[in-house]
Amino acid sequence: MLKSTPNYYPPGINVYVPKMKYDCDVIHGPAVLRLNFGPVVVANATGILSAQSINTAGSQNVFAVTYLESAMGPWGRNLTVIASGAATSNVTVKGTDYLGQPMAESFTLNGAASVVGLKAFKRISLVTFGATAATTINLGWGTKFGLPFKTIAIERELAANVLAAAGTLAAPVFTDPQTSTTGDPRGTYIPTTTPNGTTVIEADAVINDFINSSGNGGLHGIRQAAA
After folding, report:
1. 222 near 173, Cβ under 8 Å?
2. In CATH, what number is assigned to the domain containing residue 83?
3. Position 132 in a domain
4. Is residue 63 a part of any domain in this protein?
5. pTM for this one?
6. Does residue 100 fall inside a structural domain?
7. What is the rounded average pLDDT of the residues 133-160?
8. Could you tell me the pLDDT band of residue 2, with boundaries at 50, 70 and 90?
9. Alpha helix segments (H runs only) across the chain
10. Is the peptide bond before 191 cis (omega within 30 degrees of 0)?
């Protein structure tokens, strides 16, 4: 079985390949690939922004925390946003995926309930927010792991090399073009094993290289929405 482990993807370089059908990790077309997510930390609702005022509309540049491999994992992680009280204004996050593709996700606040993101961000550059008086927001990373290739099934999971039940796969979204509210074009994965910062989590993934009738897709999925 082939095994995919974290590689170096330098910031500022977009290595997304349209119509990608070949990768050294996937040498014979669609295959089962063992993904090594590493020892990532538990979800953290305030890991990126904590009690950020949205009393007036504005924005925040965010860089350092989302470079942490232990937080965002090798292929990115979803985001969560929650308001301190009644709010229905918008929060938009911009950044890149693990390939360096520019990407954006739009969140509509839902009072004091957590709004769970669908896309796997590797790095974040800018958070913009609409105004809701006397309200703050928290922004953090969630439980969904990004995937290196378009994944259509997870066959099994391993925690510290011990077999575990497969977790939950959110299927890749084939919408073309992508928007700031569509799901991730490669899918995301919630492991059965709760991340704790020390246990190495792996999963056996069934990879798909489908290209649609418009000639878009492949192993890297549809191009991310940047706005």
Report:
1. yes
2. 2.60.120
3. yes
4. yes
5. 0.93
6. yes
7. 97
8. low
9. 69-72
10. no
